[in-house]
Design goal:
Length: about 400
């Protein structure tokens, strides 16, 4: 009874603390403060005080977090300004942005604290807007100049670096100079075109995986990778009337020249399936001493009472375990068409296991232990078919494979 009371009290305390206004953010702020992440501490404290302005401890911790955070950013700025290298400007933008964010927390809290608890938040908030504007211009120019430097080299890797820097320059000043046009040109020059061959292996599932990769290219790889899809292959064949001349989709070297492909991806899929098998453990003996009846008696005061009469009850259990499973292993390689060198290779694996267990019994159910009491509530059920298992794995493998390709070609 005492344990139940303590448990209910604890649950009540926890549930109440969760719903106290600003509690979650205040708790997070204290953790971030201990870790030395003062910007995050100030952020969560500002959120907490917005909900509960009269939390004096939160106010004190906010003021301390703000001062330490501002001091740290100003120190970083002094160090960066002493460096004679233009690579400092993007980092200075980050520092000024952080200071402006911190100042925003103070400006939002000042009237709130004044109106609710008549508290003056006496923190110094400097104006860094002019310095941020200057740093943004210089950061944009820094990345723009890097882009110009890399674009002079014709190879795709340098064109990729050029495109990335032209894109980054626009993060600081939108449409900076002609960076937008230069980005498009460099991106076009940097983009690799990938031709995906038909996969070896079970045609149904390998074709599904291939089609998914061709149709659903991830955003991670889209910037510098173009995958030739089925429609494009058919267009190439039909427009150039190559079907009649005997060239088919399997003539990848010829098609790669016509499509302008840079790389070819090939893969081999191996699948396996274990049919459903049921293992039965029969005649499992169960016994337990339980109360089988109550017997009345009269005590010395003449009051009628009852005593429990215990006895042994028994049961016999049959325990069933049904299991099956399937696996897919997809090994792949991507080669450079120009020199036939392997650029990337790897393996993607997937599996799906089915397991179900249940039990039946004869005798007195009270004899069953906890495990079998639960298992006898279950019934036999059908195992998924080979097709269901392999198709679910193929879907998973498609996503994994798309992510693998993306990692090869992402920035």
């Amino acid at each position: 009874m005492k344990k139940a009371f303590l448990l209910s009290s604890l649950c009540f305390f926890i549930s109440c603390s969760v719903f106290i206004a600003g509690y979650a953010d205040y708790s997070s702020a204290k953790k971030y403060f201990k870790k030395g992440q003062y910007d995050l501490a100030a952020y969560h404290l500002s959120k907490s005080l917005t909900l509960k302005p009269n939390n004096k401890k939160a106010i004190n911790l906010f003021e301390l977090s703000y001062d330490i955070a501002v001091s740290g950013h100003k120190q970083n700025i002094r160090k960066l300004l002493s460096i004679n290298n233009n690579s400092k400007w993007p980092r200075l933008v980050e520092e000024y942005n952080s200071l402006i964010k911190l100042g925003g927390y103070v400006n939002n809290l000042r009237p709130l604290l004044k109106n609710n608890i008549n508290y003056d938040l006496e923190l110094i908030v400097d104006d860094f807007s002019d310095k941020l504007l200057d740093a943004n211009k210089r950061a944009a120019q820094y990345h723009y100049n890097l882009g110009l430097k890399f674009q002079d080299e014709a190879d795709k890797e340098n064109q990729k670096k050029a495109a990335i820097n032209f894109r980054l320059s626009q993060n600081y000043i939108p449409d900076y100079l002609d960076s937008k046009e230069l980005y498009k040109r460099a991106k076009r020059n940097a983009t690799y075109t990938l031709l995906i061959r038909e996969f070896d292996g079970n045609r149904k599932y390998s074709s599904y995986i291939r089609d998914q990769i061709m149709m659903n290219q991830t955003n991670k790889s889209k910037e510098f990778l173009r995958i030739i899809n089925r429609d494009e292959l058919e267009t190439i064949l039909s427009e150039l009337a190559l079907v009649q001349s005997g060239i088919t989709e399997n003539d990848y070297l010829e098609i790669s020249e016509l499509s302008g492909a840079d790389h070819i991806l090939s893969a081999t899929m191996i699948s396996s399936f274990n049919p459903a098998e049921t293992i039965t453990d029969t005649d499992i003996k169960q016994k337990k001493e339980v109360v089988i009846k109550k017997e009345a008696y009269v005590d010395s005061t003449g009051e009628t009472k009852y005593k429990e009469i215990k006895g042994m009850v028994r049961a016999r259990v049959d325990h069933y375990k049904k299991q099956s499973g399937a696996k897919i292993r997809l090994s792949y390689k991507i080669i450079n068409i120009n020199d036939s060198k392997i650029l990337y290779n790897g393996e993607v694996n997937g599996k799906n296991d089915f397991f179900h267990e249940w039990a039946t019994y004869e005798g007195d159910k009270r004899a069953l232990n906890y495990k079998y009491k639960n298992l006898v509530k279950r019934k036999d059920k059908f195992a998924p078919s080979e097709n269901d298992l392999l198709m679910s794995i193929a879907k998973d493998v498609s996503k994994k494979f798309a992510n693998k390709i993306a990692k090869h070609y992402e920035n």
